[in-house]
Amino acid sequence: MEKFTVHTGTAVPLRRSNVDTDQIIPAVYLKRVTRTGFEDGLFNAWRSDPAFVLNNPAYAGASVLVAGPDFGTGSSREHAVWALQNYGFKAVVAPRFGDIFRGNALKAGLLPIELDLKVVEELWAAIEADPQLSVTVDLQDRQLRAAGREWAFPIDDFSRWRLLEGLDDIGLTLRHEESITAFEQGRPEWTPVVH
Amino acid sequence: MVGEARPRTLAEKVWNAHVVRSADGEPDLLYIDLHLVHEVTSPQAFDGLRLSGRTVRRPELTIATEDHNTPTDNLLTISDPVSRTQIETLRRNCDEFGVRRHSLGDSQQGVVHVMGPQLGLTQPGMTIVCGDSHTSTHGAFGALAFGIGTSEVEHVLATQTLPQPPLKTMAVNVVGDLAPGVTAKDLVLALITQVGTGGGRGHVVEYRGPAIERMSMEGRMTVSNMSIEWGAKAGMIAPDETTFAYVEGREYAPKGEAWDRAKAYWTSLRTDEGAKFDTEVTLDITHLTPFVTWGTNPGQGAPLGASVPDPADFAEDADRVAAQKALEYMALTPGTPLRDVAVDVVFLGSCTNGRLEDLRAAADVLRGRKVAESVRMLVVPGSASVRAAAEEEGLNEVFTAAGAEWRFAGCSMCLGMNPDTLKPGERSASTSNRNFEGRQGRGGRTHLVSPQVAAATAVVGRLAAPADLN
Ligand code: SF4
């Protein structure tokens, strides 16, 4: 995984709450067997609407998505994270995320940033006033900076460290292979084994 | 680590029994007893293994099925080439890595969360994961079961473990009893409307109370299945005689003395007297009646006897805006009685309500009746074995005599990934779990209902309960 330390880019305001994963990428786009190419499915139902914010040329090239509460609820499809990444997003800001989406994002290296709705509303206003507003996401300092202001965002130490170092989770776990093997010796005899 | 004497919740007991490694400032590493795999969320995980030269650590704790993307009108031809490639990729991956698979045409093929319990692979006290959010279904057995993403699927394939952030627990204390004609589905829809779609966020929830204890395993699975729809990480129900009776004798259930030892252990899997939950909520079902959704998330629901709400009546700004958007999408006018809402399609199936008990309940309503001219009804059994059992009882004849389509097993119109979709603007009554915009097909409008309401709605052509038919 690529290291994530500090990212600076422009942002796009998505004034919607409860953007579930079916809206981020509908099921018909989940048939591919690769991790790439999902950008065409991103927000597919809304993309045909010329008024949809991602269709506004002022926000072309934005790499930070600022959305309303309960972003990424619903399905476990990691394709939702890939679609956002394939499209060019590095971070998503929202007051609250669906749990599985948040976990998937942290694994795949798309930074989920939780900030109060009030902050999100300020950000929306600032971005709409100046679509070229530069937004900095600083994982090192756990801060989001924009328009001369800064807001701290929460992230647990372990996830932060993994992202900063760009570490592969599986590799980390396999360092404890011995503990896994030891655990396996003591599993109850009745736990099912597929034949 | 906490002292031995502290009373524990069910979730803590199962969690603690699976901690491989625990270290300060790091997530616990949990052992995974069963990993369920399907075609949509696994190809990139198997690819990852190949790229890094890894193998599946415990293929015998892993099992695959084909469900999300499979056709339900035949067992032989997958006409969409992209879908076909995905299924063929699963078959190739399973064969290469030594994973047992139940493919289309196999007697155990079906929706992954129907397959596990019916094989007896789902047992109390286990940790179960799957690249699918409705893995919470298996919590009905007192297992800790939750959905994971594809990176985690790869992690479990490679290590049979998962790092997990600390556990937070919640109790849902159900007060009162289900009135006749009111179901587990109504209960869980009412719960989500009460607590909101984010109400359980981050928590492992335990459903408790006499109504839960009296519920069948099928009903318990319906309730646990929808845990994710209010944001919970997992839903659990303490195992009891109902659970044991369901598991006993199934293909993978322990046999002989192993059964006795297992049962003795499972019996200890209850929340101790005095154990503390991080959060508790109460759901009073004394006056609960059949419940349906009117909006575009499962928390936008109301009793069938009510009317489409007026967004102006919501206290919170966010709820008002969400209701407004939902009603626009659903093309509903505030004040319209829900019983006046006409539907085009009725979908009976999914891992929420596609088991034998659900099909029986719907067939009881349809027996001797006809699906309305204006309605297309699809009956999609949750698995090939549910389908076979239903045919043995003649349920298929009840459905076809009523004018419904009797399909092969799969996810089907629950997520509209195969050709079973709503057309833009079509409205459905669906026994599945998600009424999101476009979930059942682009522009489709979904009302979540119980199997009984689905069947009555099919007959009337408008949202209805069985009692309306007399
Ligand atoms: S039936 Fe629906 S909810 Fe269940 S696994 Fe299939 S798509 Fe997911």
Summarize the structure.
Chain A has 195 residues and is an alpha/beta fold.
**Total beta strands of chain B:** 19
What structural class results from the helix and strand content of chain A? alpha/beta
Q: Describe the biggest sheet of chain A?
A: 4 strands, antiparallel
> Measured on Cα atoms, how large is the radius of gyration of chain B?
22 Å
Number of helices of chain A: 8
Name its key features.
heterodimer; A: 195 residues; alpha/beta; 4-stranded parallel beta sheet; 8 helices; 8 strands; B: 470 residues; 5-stranded parallel beta sheet; 16% strand; globular
Outline the fold blueprint.
The complex is a heterodimer of chains A (195) and B (470).
Chain A: E1 6-9, E2 11-14, H1 21-24, H2 44-47, E3 64-67, H3 79-87, E4 91-94, H4 99-108, E5 111-114, H5 117-129, E6 135-138, E7 143-146, E8 149-152, H6 157-165, H7 169-174, H8 177-185
Parallel strand pairs in A: 2-3, 3-4, 4-5
Antiparallel strand pairs in A: 1-6, 6-7, 7-8
Chain B: H1 10-16, E1 19-21, E2 28-31, E3 34-37, H2 43-51, E4 62-65, H3 81-97, E5 100-102, H4 112-119, E6 127-130, E7 144-147, H5 150-159, E8 161-164, E9 169-175, H6 184-195, E10 204-208, H7 210-213, H8 217-225, E11 234-236, H9 241-247, H10 256-267, E12 279-284, E13 291-293, E14 301-303, H11 317-330, E15 345-348, H12 350-353, H13 356-366, E16 376-379, H14 384-392, H15 395-402, E17 405-406, E18 427-430, E19 445-448, H16 451-460
Parallel strand pairs in B: 3-4, 3-6, 4-5, 6-7, 9-10, 9-12, 10-11, 15-16, 15-18, 16-17, 18-19
Antiparallel strand pairs in B: 1-2, 2-8, 13-14
Helix pairs in contact in B: 2-5, 6-8, 13-15, 13-16
Region (Disordered) (chain B): 421-448
Protein name (chain B): 3-isopropylmalate dehydratase large subunit
EC number (chain B): 4.2.1.33
